[in-house]
Amino acid sequence: MILAVDIGNTTIGLGVCQGTRILSVRRVDTVASKRQLAAAVSKCLGEIRRWYPSLRDAVICSVVPRALATVESVLRRQFGARVVVIGRDIPVPIKNNYRDPRQVGQDRLVGAYAAQCLYRAPCLIIDFGTAITFDIVSRRGEYEGGIIIPGLRLSAESLFQKTALLPRIDTIRAPRSLIGKDTRESILSGLFNGYGAMCAGLIDQVAGTMSRRPKVIITGGHTRLMQKFIRTRVTAIDKDLVFKGIALVSQNKKNLTNF
């Protein structure tokens, strides 16, 4: 059993994993002061410890260096955990064909590795997070690269900040209809129907570059909202893909010499 910690730009997820089975998930906001973040993580860890008192090992996947330092410190000092950081202490065991492999976020590699292990290559992973990322794993099981697009909330916030009259969309929810009858509904329709059509088109374009049509796995915070707007075949909806990937990386014994 491990504590899988996924530090993203918007939220930090703490998942208790038994193999690739996710027993419990708690989340805190990433965008907080160091003190607020430490307090929120400490509170979550206290709740986890009550339910899983024997839990001692933590594996972190992070794309936010500032938050990583705070979370790692809390895990070591207050939780007494043995902490491993993916990308620093152990690599993701997948061949990375990016021109500069250091530019790929560890969360993208972890998701690609999880998809390869659980769903088999070739595969295309779409993560609906702060950014929407497409990641491609070839038939050979190698990470080939991907596509990065501003996410739903980023796009909605950009409309509010860069226009004089459009309102802020505080709650990202599915639109009631294709044709919006007020400005908020029009924005929501544009976000969901627009991104859905874009995703369907990009899936087909990516598939056209591959020798065999890839399995399509969707994940991330807005997955459930977006799934019905992607009008093409989706192989799997796996909201816990990164947690499962963290667990799978931790099980790769040859990489755990520092654990």
Characteristics of this structure?
259 residues, alpha/beta, Nucleotidyltransferase, domain 5, 2 domains, 5-stranded mixed beta sheet, 7 helices, globular
**Would you identify the CATH architecture of the largest domain?**
2-Layer Sandwich
Low-confidence stretches: none
Order of secondary-structure elements: EEEHEHEHEEEHHEHEH
CATH level 1 name of the largest domain: Alpha Beta
Q: Which structural category fits the helices and strands?
A: alpha/beta
Describe this entry's structure for a reader.
The chain has 259 residues and is of the alpha/beta class. The protein has two domains: 2-85, 2-Layer Sandwich (Nucleotidyltransferase, domain 5); 101-246, Nucleotidyltransferase, domain 5, CATH 3.30.420.40. It is 37% helix and 24% strand. The longest helix is centred in the C-terminal third of the chain and has 26 residues, at 183-208. It is globular, with a radius of gyration of 19 Å.
Explain briefly what this protein structure is.
With 259 residues, this protein is α/β, with parallel strands linked by helices. It has helices at 34-51, 65-77, 106-119, 152-162, 183-208, 223-226, 241-251, and strands spanning 2-7, 11-18, 21-29, 57-62, 82-85, 123-128, 131-137, 143-150, 215-219, 236-237.
SSE diagram, text form:
Layout: E1 2-7, E2 11-18, E3 21-29, H1 34-51, E4 57-62, H2 65-77, E5 82-85, H3 106-119, E6 123-128, E7 131-137, E8 143-150, H4 152-162, H5 183-208, E9 215-219, H6 223-226, E10 236-237, H7 241-251
Parallel strand pairs: 1-4, 4-5, 6-9, 9-10
Antiparallel strand pairs: 1-2, 2-3, 6-7, 7-8
Helix pairs in contact: 1-2, 3-7
